[in-house]
Amino acid sequence: MGKTRIENRIRRLRFDRSEMTQQELAEKVGVTRQTINAIELGKYSPSLEVAFRIAHALGVSLEEVFSYREETDEETRSEPRTKRP
Amino acid sequence: MSFREKSAWVTLITLIVLTIGFALHLPRPWTLSPAPSPFLFHVLVAAIVAFVAIAVIAHIVLAIFSPHDARAPKDERERLIELKSIAVAAYVYAFLSLGSVFTIHVGANQIGVGYLVLLSFVVAEIVHYAARIYYYRRGF
Fold first, then answer.
1. Residues 53-82 of B with CB under 8 A from A
2. Looking at domain A6-72, which of 3.10.129.10, 3.90.220.20, 1.10.260.40, 3.30.2350.10 is its CATH number?
3. What is the ipTM of this complex?
């Protein structure tokens, strides 16, 4: 599966907040550490509710954590669309 | 590795080992006696009891080493992984169980077909847990 077009700054924001670990963020959000890792790496797009909880746990707005990257025409032709849950 | 991934590994390995052990005792479907075999019944019961016992003991051990993970409810990614892997296994079960019924046309008797349907279910479960591990390893 290719990466989704939803990008995130979770890793950067975690380090900005006293180097919060994935486990600490996972506990605040109520998911597993593996799920936070999958989201950080762009392998899994979280539900809107979890996305809001991540933003809340990091103390920023949703837009500061997640952004939606528009595909270029070339990317659209070369990469199949990623299925999202 | 999360508790649920370890759990999937334990279940997968237990299923594979016991299925191979059971299948080695199983004659070819067309050589089975039309009457139920007490020996095969005992092997089947032993395999089921062994599966439950191994799964329970292994999960207790896993829970002792990671109690926090074991108590935590499944999150949304884990639930989706479960659903996706069950969907894959459902296709396998449908294909194999239908195939089992067709063996009646190549000489298998009712008892043989019954055991083949049972094996179809077990193979589908093996695929189910293998798919889970695949999705856990891949991220989603």
1. 69, 72, 75-78, 80
2. 1.10.260.40
3. 0.75
